[in-house]
Amino acid sequence: MVNRCAWVSEEEIYKAYHDHEWGVPVRDDQKLFEMLILEGAQAGLSWITILKRRENYREAFDQFNVQKVAAYGEDKIQELLMNEGIIRNKLKVRGTVKNAKAFLNIQEEFGSFSSYIWAFTENTPILNNWKSIEEVPAETELSKKISKDLKKRGFTFVGPVIMYSFLQAVGIVNDHTTDCFRHPNAMEKAEHDVD
Fold first, then answer.
1. Is the C-alpha dihedral spanning 139, 143, 145, 146 positive or negative?
2. CA-to-CA distance for 54 and 41, rounded, in angstroms?
3. CA distance 106 to 113
4. Which residues of 57-78 are buried (b: 16+ CB within 10 A; e: fewer)?
5. Where are the strands (E) in the chain, listed by range?
6. DSSP 3-state assignment of 126?
7. pLDDT of residue 190
8. What's the CA gap between 116 and 170, in Å, rounded?
């Protein structure tokens, strides 16, 4: 039996997300934008709620094409607020458009959002060695620093807790617990056992 992080339920969609995405370094701006928006949409809800609606979000927000989202006008916003496939929260929907505009500004200034966000860790993922889910923090000094900077740049739904979830999701921080098969030490051991 495969040992996973304790937060993963038995639902296949959750297991697949944990096994193939969570904690894997992402450097593609479109994927980073998608995760930033989905993590913000999660605020006050469970991740599985968003995960199950992910395809709806992709469809509703033009596959997270940041230029298109930044150009959404009031008609499109009203259309999104009628879309039952996503979380129809006015602040979150309007926040997505606001964040897209701020995201474009960062791309312009730094060449890419990836260059901007990865610079906080000098382009290197942070590997933690938490033994259990109880040890994993909800926020860190790093997530507070990034949150503060993003807010200054006009982003919304980017508080320190949301940002820490984002950092975990896109692999800037690897928080697979040491007993999980996706923790690098466990993966190294498995490869060694095969040899």
1. negative
2. 10
3. 6
4. beebbeebebeebbebeeebee
5. 126-127, 173-174
6. strand
7. 55
8. 14
Place of tokens 């395809």: 55
DSSP 3-state of 187: helix
Residues of the chain short of pLDDT 50, as ranges, are: 194-195
Q: Cα 135 vs. chain centroid, distance in angstroms? A: 20
- The pLDDT assigned to 107 comes to 98
The identity of residue 171, as a single letter, is G
Quick one: which H or E segment has residue 25?
none
Crossing angle, helix 160-169 and helix 141-152, to 10 degrees?
110
Look up residue 176 and give its DSSP letter: -
pLDDT, residue 195, reads 43
Its pTM surpasses 0.85: yes
User: What are the residue numbers of the active site?
Assistant: 17, 39, 47
Q: How far apart are the C-alpha atoms of 121 and 57, rounded to whole Å? A: 29
